[in-house]
Amino acid sequence: MNPVERLMAATADDMARVNELILARAHSHVDMVPELARYLIDSGGKRLRPMLTVAAAILFGRGTGNEVNFAAAVEFMHNATLLHDDVVDESDMRRGKPAARMVWGNKASILVGDFLLGQAFMMMVETGDIRSLGVLSAASAVMAEGEVFQLAKTGDLQTSSEDYAEVIRAKTAVLFEAACEVGAISGGADEAGCKALALYGLELGNAFQLVDDALDYGGQSGTLGKNVGDDLREGKMTLPVILALQSASDSERAIIANALGNAEASDLEVHQVVAIFTRYDTLKRTFSKAQEHAAAAVAALNGLPDSEMKSILIDVVEHSVSRAS
Amino acid sequence: MNPVERLMAATADDMARVNELILARAHSHVDMVPELARYLIDSGGKRLRPMLTVAAAILFGRGTGNEVNFAAAVEFMHNATLLHDDVVDESDMRRGKPAARMVWGNKASILVGDFLLGQAFMMMVETGDIRSLGVLSAASAVMAEGEVFQLAKTGDLQTSSEDYAEVIRAKTAVLFEAACEVGAISGGADEAGCKALALYGLELGNAFQLVDDALDYGGQSGTLGKNVGDDLREGKMTLPVILALQSASDSERAIIANALGNAEASDLEVHQVVAIFTRYDTLKRTFSKAQEHAAAAVAALNGLPDSEMKSILIDVVEHSVSRAS
């Protein structure tokens, strides 16, 4: 079994309850709501975020049982974000299927996203755990803020590595952080334990997004294939582009600038940009950055006693970075 | 002073704190967030919902001070909904100004709406009042559900009066209900007091939306003017249309069906539809329905001791219904 499969096995009992709750709470007397919600929710995502919530609770002994509600809430928050992101990015596909907005339209995707967010908060409130509610509501605001920041930076050639670090922290890592932190709280962790898991989640999330952003260009080696260069055509200022612009000659900058945000950019144009990335090693450097964050995630767990779950969480980090190699 | 002005005067001290909080919490280091949020928030809405929260707290003696946070949260929830609704309805104007989506685009409107919702929950969480959090998070989910239901019923000639009652309850009345209920809770009301204020808010909200839906066709008298018939062109199945379809002849049904959901419908076509409404008194009957709900709102306060604030709340109901006469 690979580490994610081991995580699945170790969280299977709780995740069965989480999945039941997810199904129950996607219900509505308005048929379009569960139809659209389940189309996305059942579309084969790994449910990594809720598994992390459950795993963090198990790591500390599973004190309150609240982790089931929080895990389902985290998955709803994530799916609400996906629905809105696909509208914002005008994405046609999600997880190998037509995006929900292509089936039910943008309007329903926006509104069902809002519904899932409302349901997420209801599930959180039911726990009565005001501290975890604070963690997740803050995450919700920061995630939206990060998406706006990313939108504002779209196609902006002046975007810095620091801007990028802020975008991925806000739009991705903060939910990983919150998912792990509320799991630890539910598991009865002390302050140091909660902090350790929060940092683990944050750094895993950072690594995860960096790897995703390298994979969008085919991974470390810049292999071309299906959907390679989507971020480029959408004008997303991810680290491979930012690093390339810092080193590029004027003519190289012009090639990148022409393709960036150009939905009609040809495969050849994308290929030329990836060739520039290769020249300056920007995909490899993005991957190295991911490895730094991965190391920080693993280090965050240093102070915790060894256990089967701890070793799984460590291996999950290494596995998620290995996707890009 | 009219009743809304009296409400403003009676809540002025608390509303000054609410407005400060609203400004502070619309802040973000991402410039586009406060720019867009303040454009909408400062655009001259009456802030009726947060005033009701504050008024309900004052009515019961203002126990905890939490009403300030809840009032600001209610206004953020309302504005988040407006941002998303304008995208969904493809509205060009809002409160006499170009809608935010016309200035910053649909994408930013979706994401800033999400941000306001996250901030709303943060402000609620800060009170530590888990009961009120339950009320408002449930309202949040129901509102989105109501919007999806309305979307699903768009242009559906089979829509019943009961469907319509469900739509306006969910999309409008539930937030009025929640705004009043959490105000009462913050004010230290007993169970009967909380229930009375919740019912008052619900029925006021129902009356409010019925009046709005009659005003969209020029009010009781069906006077034509600017933006008259927007709902018709958007295919919204509001009560005036539903009642007309129930009584109409085949040829009248055809006239309504042709204009319904037809963004290009001419003023003449709208005029013909309004003439059918007049024939069957459907605007007057919509207004009568609003008056029934208004009477129920006033009756909800019967069991409460008389006070200046109670008389203001009663007069606000009558004032809001009088808009349509």
TrEMBL record, chains A, B:
What is a GO molecular function of this protein?
prenyltransferase activity
* Pfam families per the UniProt record, alphabetical: polyprenyl_synt
Task: Name the lineage.
Answer: Bacteria, Pseudomonadati, Pseudomonadota, Alphaproteobacteria, Hyphomicrobiales
Q: Which domain of life is it from?
A: Bacteria
Q: What's an example Gene Ontology biological process for this entry?
A: isoprenoid biosynthetic process
From which organism does this entry originate? Devosia aurantiaca
What are the entry keywords?
A: Magnesium, Metal-binding, Transferase
Protein family according to the UniProt entry: Belongs to the FPP/GGPP synthase family.
SUPFAM superfamilies attached to this UniProt entry: Terpenoid synthases
Q: Report the cofactors.
A: Mg(2+)
Q: What is this protein called?
A: Polyprenyl synthetase family protein
